[in-house]
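Lecture 7 notes: from sequence to structure.

We start with a single chain of 611 residues. Read the sequence below before looking at the structure.
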Amino acid sequence: MTTTDFPVDGVFAEPPLRRTDPATTVEALQAVIFGKHVALHTRVRDIVVGLADLPSSGLTFTQEAERAPALLRAVIAGLGHPAREIAADAQLRGALCDWAQIAAPRLLLVLTGHFDLAIGAILALGNGSRYQQRCLAELDTAATLGVLVLTELGGTNGADHRTTATWEPATGGFRLTTPAAAAIKFMPNVADPAVPKTVVITARLVVDGRDQGVLPFLLELRTSEGLAEGVHVVRLPDKDSAPMDHALIRFDRVWLPREALLGGDWAHIDADGNFTCDLPPRSRFHRAISVLGNGRLDLANAAIASARAGLAGLVNYSRQRRPGSGTLMADRDAVQRDLATGLAAVYATSVLGRRLRDLRADANVTAKEHALWSMLAKPLLSDTANDVLMMCRDRAAAQGALRINHLVDWIGNLAAIRTAEGENQIMQITAGRQGHTLTALQLPGTPTQMPWYIAMLADRERTIADALSVGSHETAGDILGPDAAAIELATATAERLAATALATAAFTTADPTARKLAVAAAAAYALGRIHAHGIWYTANHRLTPQRAAAITTELTRNLRVIADHLPMLVAAFALPALPGPLFTSDYIETWMGHVGWDSASFPEVGSTAYR
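Now the structure, written as tokens:
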């Protein structure tokens, strides 16, 4: 499909908006967001809400961080499955991360480390040895917390790690050593002296003086008896949010058994110290960290789940808040535009995240493909969530600044999510270097013909990829070099996939009202991205003044459709009854209950002129 006109083919022609039962429409929209897993999300949501991890005042950063281990043990018990089963179930694990970010933010901070990175590594790369099974048994109930220890003070360093694990023939094990200050392990959450921690640590394997590349090892770093001999841990200073017991770690000839090596079926060392591996040394690190893909996707979806919650809270509050002019906040066109724009972006990225989670069960998708999908998803979903939640925080004004209203806790976790398991810009650069591999990515079941606005997104993506394939990065826009061009390509691909995911979901929705609203959201999201890249389209002769005017008209029309149905669209998010005043049916009465005052005792009883 070209982008020289605005065709509307029969498959994607928008239906007239016919009134249907609101409950049926909300149910259909829930299927757009959660797919076939609405019941699972409802069950997990209620278990997580039952943990009562509510925002509280007066606690220190360390005290806040200390809440996470008990929350993890409680949620594993509540779900009724050992942690290894939760870790192996992408849907259950993902739903847990989503609802933890919303209703138990301190729990979310330890989930991916425990399930994806520690247990996930043992399940994917372990050999079933007695040592590994003992570690798994402790992780199953969260009697011990699992953590990935990867980043060094000098940087992540990839295949150039400096920490070493040297084979020691005399003891039949490895000696883990920090050879330089830059090799100190940086920021793993292992500082709490009261919590046992089992870690998966990446280190450079040295056998008979030969560098065998970077591989993961399993270490019982802290047990009930204290730190392993030779391990030195120093707590790092507090962050401004997302409380965790971050630390620096130094290893002084820490002994590891031979079974500590996590090499899957491709790397192992026998009792005589004979090391064999199917991969060249510099490829071993990238195979070893394949488990990061699960964590990246879980964090991405958790981020956008909290953006859904933030929008639901702001829609609720805006329909109560009546400033001095007497006009409801919800009736202000600027607020409506912010909410409609945010909802379009959140619907599109939520459906993309859900589709990628579904792909985890597809045996035809390779580990390398999963890794690429996750590198595209994490920046798009977490950056979108950050933009939306910051908008909610700003529009909620003073209410949004208070932890009791949840937004700032979610935003704080987003700062951690955007850094964890690969900082977003690094993810984009790595993905963008794949060139035309990105333009070929398609979600299963994508129609061969898509609406014109998605074709325009795809045209920009292909044009940038074509230029990068011949070493030209200027076509990507106002960038300074190849890294920035790779970011533009990765972003273009992710935006095209998000718009495609929502459009496909919309046109497979039977309920006519739900379909109309989902189509409007898909169009508004895609048109909004075209609008944001307007200079690029103009510079590359894709946008005349007439076409720009038509795009603006269509964008405005679809935003109006969304703005007219805000309560229905956010009802589909299935948010639990959060206690923050922003989320209750009468925020003033909620505040009266919080401070213990009776609103009936005030002179202007029943006045709603100023709320």
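The radius of gyration is 26 Å. Keep this in mind for problem set 3.
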